[in-house]
């Protein structure tokens, strides 16, 4: 299984970014996909997940600003991030499955993409 993120970068506070997550080697339409971030000062934080029935869940601090979606035909999940804040800075990775605890370990995950929000 290969999981590949793209779309990170440097953005000013209040700006937007869209992350993409392509999955190869797994029946994508059966997978739940999670977005997780690594923040130096706070460790691992679950951000959002989308189930194979398109149900979505979010951590409280991103509700109303982030939107997770998926395109099964493209084997890709997306994380649209609007109204970005300094505290959203981190390395974002996507993974198969759903686990919201900071101690979660994901068997199938990408390398991550850096998101830096500057004030």
Plain-language structure description:
- This protein has no helices and ten strands.
- It is globular.
- The protein is mainly beta and 119 residues long.
- A hairpin with a 5-residue loop joins β5 (43-50) and β6 (56-58).
- The chain has a six-stranded mixed β-sheet with strand order 2-10-9-4-5-6, with no helix packed on it. It has a four-stranded antiparallel β-sheet with strand order 1-3-8-7, with no helix packed on it.
List keywords for this structure.
10 strands; four-stranded antiparallel β-sheet; six-stranded mixed β-sheet; mainly beta; 119 residues
Write the layout of secondary structure elements.
Blueprint (H helix, E strand, L loop, with lengths): L1 E5 L2 E4 L4 E8 L8 E7 L3 E8 L5 E3 L7 E6 L4 E6 L8 E7 L16 E6 L1
Largest sheet: 6 strands, mixed
Structural class comes to: mainly beta
Mean pLDDT: 97
Which percent range describes the beta-strand content?
over 45%
N-end to C-end Cα span: 37 Å
The DSSP helix count reads: 0
Low-confidence segments, given as residue ranges, are none
Overall form: globular
The count of DSSP E runs of length 2 or more, i.e. the number of strands, is 10
Amount of helix? under 10%
Q: Encode the helix/strand succession as letters.
A: EEEEEEEEEE
**Computed Rg:** 13 Å
Neighbour order of strands in the largest sheet: 2-10-9-4-5-6
Oligomer: single chain
